[in-house]
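Input/output pair, single chain:
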Amino acid sequence: MKNIKAGLVGFGTVGSGVVKLLKENQLVIEQRLGIPIILKRVMDLDITTNRGIELGDGVLTDQLDKILDDPEISIVIELIGGIEPAKSIILQAIRNKKHVVTANKALLATHGDAIFKEAEKNKIDIAFEASVGGGIPILRSLREGFAANRIESILGIMNGTTNFILSEMTNREGKFEDILRYAQDRGFAEADPSFDLEGIDIAHKLVIILALAYGVRVNPEDIYTEGISGITLPDIEFAREFGYRIKHLAISRDEGSQIEARIHPTMLPFTHLLSEVDGVYNAFYVQGNAVGTTLFRGEGAGMMPTASAVVGDLVELSRNITRGISLRTPALSYQRKSILNKIIKNINEVITNYYLRFSVVDSPGVLSQISGILGRHNISISSVIQKDQKIEGAVPIVMMTHQAKEKSIQTAVDKINNLDVVLGRTVLIRIEDETLEGKHNQEQVIS
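Output:
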């Protein structure tokens, strides 16, 4: 075999990065693989826009069949995103006996089972490192590097947009709306950022992570997902007083009969490694029963980091082709027969610590009314901050709780919100802090 020929579908930002990387690192890729990778065709509906990248004559086309029906092309790279026509393109490529590289997290999270089943049936490899974490090799690590481990937990910062916004709000003390506009101006947030801000993008990624880490089949809608639009500067400041930073976190834990999986703003202590991950960076804090704790950190999106993952997959599949093998490792780490439909733990059953900020009228007895309701629902207070200055016309009372069940917290908060002395909705943020577990009940008041 003299070379490997590939076809690229989608010549946008990441597709341009893939072409650029294949050109710039052509020599080192060939030295590692043993033969060159030739990008025979690049397909896009727009064949007139100048991307600033030179392609050979006849390489750029708007005809999909020039890739899917070309017997010389052995790997198809899908980078158009979305569900359709990406799903049909990938399935047709598989049926035409072509291996596939994709970065399409939404497609794999919602239709991955059908795609992986078809790939296994046709003895075709599908690689998707770029679908989660950009240039961070987290999926390959879960599939191969941690193959000897039972993954106990993963905490992840999986979206650069939300991490950038929270970092800027923390470091620059800017309002959410102002930082969002700033992020959009700099290209760190989409014109319509709702997929990022509400955690939908993270949910798609977490579905893939759960499959590789725990061998489970999960739908994105099964995962409790909460966005960051409710985070305000006062909460960031109060978090700092308690020794915490707020991150938009994806959390998963193996609890044996069920999997804990949730996405929401989370307070992390200053000492936690993830609390130091700022800007557009992503990070994964992985706990294995043998390896212990590991941290992966890097750029989670962007042209070249994502292209790095795509081309890495391209090289991996090319190595298999040169040796005449496929399905060397299961796409989802676990053998298909071992992948289970495990129950996702209901958010109401989660037990953790909580930050609560109440907006109340400035009158005596308010604190005792609130603490009384919490006590009747078996919620113990660990510390309280009560300040004189008003926020939006109300006096803030901020509490940190000992570990409590989510259902109890929600029930108590609903009752507190109905008190005449409470103005507006209570802010609730969950806390991940191992040092708080097992502490004796105590109350500390800071005035």
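The two ends are 75 Å apart (CA to CA). The chain has 14 helices and 19 strands.
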